[in-house]
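INTERNAL AUDIT FORM
Audit reference: QA-55
Scope: verify that the stored structure record matches its stored sequence.
Auditor: D.O.
Record contents follow.
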Amino acid sequence: MATLLYRLGRFAFRRRHFVALFWVALLALAGAGAAGAPVAGNSSFSIPGTEAQKAFDVLEERFPGSSADGATARVVFKAPAGEKMTDAGHRATVQDTVGELSDGSEVARVTDPYAGGGVSKDGTVAYASVTYQVSGMELEDSSRDFLRDAAESARDTGLTVEIGGDALQAVPATGAAEIIGIGVAAVVLVITFGSLVAAGLPLLTALIGVGIGVASITALASTLELGSTTSILAMMIGLAVGIDYALFIVSRYRAELAEGREREDAAGRAVGTAGSAVVFAGLTVVIALVGLSVVNIPMLTKMGIAAAGTVAIAVLIALTMVPALLGYAGRRVRAAGEKGRPGGRKAGNADEEKPQQQAQRPNLGTRWASFVVRRPVAVLLLGVVGLGAAAVPASSLELGLPDDGSQPTSTTQRRAYDLLSEGFGPGFNGPLVVVVDAKGSDDPDAVFRQTGDAVKALDGAVSVSPATPNKAGDTATITVVPDSKPSSVATEDLVHDIRDAGADVRADTDADVLVTGATAMNIDVSQKLNDALLPYLTLVVGLAFLLLIVVFRSVLVPLKAALGFLLSVMAALGAVVAVFQWGWLSGLMGVEETGPVMSMMPIFMVGVVFGLAMDYEVFLVTRMREAYVHGEKPSQAVVTGFRHGARVVSAAAVIMMAVFAGFIGSSEAMVKMIGFGLAVAVFFDAFVVRMAIVPAVLALLGKKAWWLPKWLDRVLPNVDVEGEGLRTDAERKGGSPDDDWDLARV
């Protein structure tokens, strides 16, 4: 592989006009596709195999035209102090608003609070439910504006009017913090390279890659039903890995220049060595993201595949666009350790000039690695105990999906949620829909009554509506309002109790009793994600473990990498629980409402963090193996790996943390939590696991770290990530400019 990538790097360096034109044209093509694509439509949230989804499908079939998947809005009215919503003037205002809303072009139906029991017992709060013919993502902006205008007209009469539901859901904004994250990355790159040009290369290539990826997602969003969060996730991960991969190659290029190589040869060797690490690091990220499909949640699968595609683009750009831009930069990118202005020496031909190696005192990475090698046990214990302490809050992890109660108090959705809780009780915001399928029963009406009586007898149900049958009379819905808020454990227990009662009804009547609704769907999603976590972890870690055995030709090094990852991800989950569930530093993070951690957070962090953690593992440890293969003792190889890689890995980690932290400013709770969790996970994994625990373990293992059974050594392919083949193949050919690379040879 090293030889192939070496040729690719030289080809890109020499044919830079062609390579640059290809990527710019691809960016323009993707941009044109995004600009001309229709607005993304329905990003349906279906959960195959769950009872809530089965009940939803029954509603679609038995209640045609009911718009079961349509957007909903609750327009909540509150009377001024000392007045009631039953007063004649307020009643007239509400009925005028209901009539106005009924004229909406996409409205399916509107309920009158005074005809449908939508007034609180004390008369201070009332609500009208609006159901639309299309989903929230398909709803026209004009319909949202019409809804807001109707509410504003009611406010002008002195009422407090707020709007809840998913009709007002909008594309999440990430805020200015994202730009700040990129700015921090730029500063780190300038400090690392000491050159604006060298620092600009990773940023430029990462932005091109993310531009292609996000534009492609936007162009395909309507066709593939991709949600708005998909492009944000792709941007988040694409920026982070794109900058890091380019950073690795530019850093190795400068190191090759410092050894006196010609620029074209240095570009080839940088891609052949660091590029090999980039390929395998990228493969681990792609495996982790594509592996999300095993959860069998279409939305999560699409998010993972889209983000994996962006990572693949980042890898290809790092291997081709980076050496091409290095060709354009010429002497403006200096050798590592070279001081002063580029081209400052007096020489006949600057491109043929070979910078002399400079004797330098040991850098910080060398000094730190030497310390760890001398004190491996102490460093190992300190790292493991520290991460273990950070992981303690994870033992209190509670999972759920966000609802309007987790919105900032500044939003109308949150204020509507609070008004409904005040007037009708906390469970009113999360009603349960019981679907009774009595199609095979001799007396459906008796089944409906029996089911209603069974549900009324349960603890935790504050109200149970009469059964509402369909036109055929074989299926009915019963609305159950819990006495606890939607995200509480008590509500989850009530859902399970209703399903248990439904099993008894089925045993007596052969009728199916199913529970659905947003709250039940959230509960089923959480359970499905919990059930999938162990198989997913086994699949992803297992595949990556096999991949790393091929890369490092060792059994213990990949095992150590996987165990270190588990430590860092558990510590990161502990930090997420402490902030988003317990409320520590919540004000600093902009978390206005604490509550359960998002259901998909653990499995998502496992996938993404594992892939990103392997970036540092591959880049850092391949330098160690390279030194070991070239004859250094194991302990010295650890120090050599840190001398060459510690500064780059540290810079890459800081950049990735800055990019992820930038998304903490998002208005979307899921994006905010993911941004924080990934930033913390990168910190733990890069600076505690890879910088402390890894060298300590390798120092303790010595030569055993690189042990591989002879039979396995014969079976495994030799991918030559260390670039050993370049010491004979490339040097034998002499790196002649006439030795052009033929695309047909690959």
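Auditor finding: record pair retrieved intact. Residues 340-359, 729-746 have pLDDT under 50 and may be disordered.
Action required: none
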